[in-house]
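input
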Amino acid sequence: MSREELFDKLAQAVIVGEPEGAEELARKALAQGLDPLVCINEGLTAGMDRVGELFASGEYFLPDLIIGGEAMKAGLAVLEPALTGGQEREVLGRVVLGTVEGDLHEIGKTLVGTMLTANGFQVTDIGVDKAVSEFIAAVRESGATLVGASALLTTTMLQQQRLVEALEEAGLRDQVKVMVGGAPVTQSWADKIGADGYAEDAISAVALARRLVGAPI
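output
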């Protein structure tokens, strides 16, 4: 098949949520000698962008977003190790993501990470139930310029405020933008605690992250 057909099929595998298909097509692309970076950008990322559009328009739902993300990751797992020499995906920014201490909700955070990865961000996902000190350590280790903190319970929202305060105390606040999200979180809460932005869902999180790093939206 032509390279354009292969890119279309890669994108379609992500859109319909077929991880095995995305992995197989990625291997075929490499076997044909196609540029892995172009395969990522023209195939996987294009597909994930379409999934995001369908989700935003109400045609897709949470499960569709999840399986699309799994398909994208399966393709990336094949293509990223094949990047050669000075080849690298454009990195818009480095992000530390986590769900705050006392909160075990993961799906929303994981989706944000998937969408940010698809859009050129380097994501360090530290997981759920993470103390403020663990966010700080991850920022220092990764050199992140963005932190995303998720809270799905009203009782854990205060941890987002503590994270902003801890970044200030650690002398990191000037270099790190803070995004907050989660079901009970609002823009007014973000404003109150001094966060740099609030995202309602994974799609708006990408737009917010791009705005915070000064990238075109």
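quick obs: The two ends are 33 Å apart (CA to CA).
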